[in-house]
């Protein structure tokens, strides 16, 4: 019989929500949201990334990322630049303000990541990540 307390999507959803709340309380006090942080991280990681590639990296819909980048551009974190080879392609890069925010948040995010995983062996973390990846793939297969 179904029991919500042992249901994997319920357990993972609650855990993700608690971790996200902790991240927002401890890391993102300077006005940058967790979603903006993921964008800052990825844009900075690649120095220059297309908006389409950012959608894939963040696993977000293009319309969601477009609105996010609109807001981040207005706040002075991101620059948009159309490709000279293909006007449909928009490249994103960080402004000085975006770079500073990313650099400031990296150690805070790293610290929280260590707090979240404390007491869990590398082997168990690897298994956990693999299980989550498989669960995501299983859901994606069902959508096809």
From TrEMBL:
Query: What SMART domains does the database record attribute to this sequence?
Result: HTH_MARR
HTH marR-type domain: residues covered:
5-137
For the keyword Disulfide bond, the answer is no
Q: Which domain of life is it from?
A: Bacteria
Q: Which UniProt keywords apply?
A: DNA-binding, Transcription, Transcription regulation
Q: Which Pfam families match?
A: MarR (PF01047)
In terms of InterPro entries, this protein maps to:
HTH_MarR-typ, Tscrpt_reg_MarR-type_CS, WH-like_DNA-bd_sf, WH_DNA-bd_sf
Check the record and name the PANTHER family matching this protein: TRANSCRIPTIONAL REGULATOR, MARR, TRANSCRIPTIONAL REPRESSOR OF EMRAB OPERON
- Listed name of the protein: MarR family transcriptional regulator
Q: What is the lineage of its organism?
A: Bacteria, Bacillati, Bacillota, Clostridia, Eubacteriales
